[in-house]
Amino acid sequence: ICIYNIFIFWRYKLHCCFVDLKYRFHRLQIHKEAIRVTDLIENALKEMKPVFQINKTTVQFVPPENEYIVNADKNHLQLMLFNIWENAIKHNEVPVSIKITVERMHHILTIKTADDGKGVSKIDDSIKYRGLGLEYINTIMEDHKGALAISKNEPKGLTVSLNFPINE
User: Rounded to whole angstroms, what are the CA distances from 50 to 56, 104, 106, 141?
Assistant: First the structure.
């Protein structure tokens, strides 16, 4: 009975922490500035290099032909990329390959990360709220008036896209 009571206590405490975190997500400070997307991605990749090496992850970044600037919070954008890349690593038993691209279509700039891992069996809107990391990304993208998109990467794996509006 004592172990059961301890379990109930910690389950309640953990639940309270998650509720508190969800509340704080909606109060995050956003400090937007003009960011050179290629520079930000290259710096983030440099910081993640030890993680990629330890996990035998191969990474390919295809810089865009044109330099794009997005009005975004640099720290949050970098944390979102770290989260996406770490998810690709930790949700696969074998080393994965990650490909990062930047595309522009009309007034939308997309930073796309595709991996060749096991992917997920079903993709729907609820996937954006699986785990605190994806919920954090979804919240930050909404604060940037952008969108998080998750799709299957053919023939296998997952593609996560951060879609930012471009104001000209």
Answer: 10, 30, 36, 27
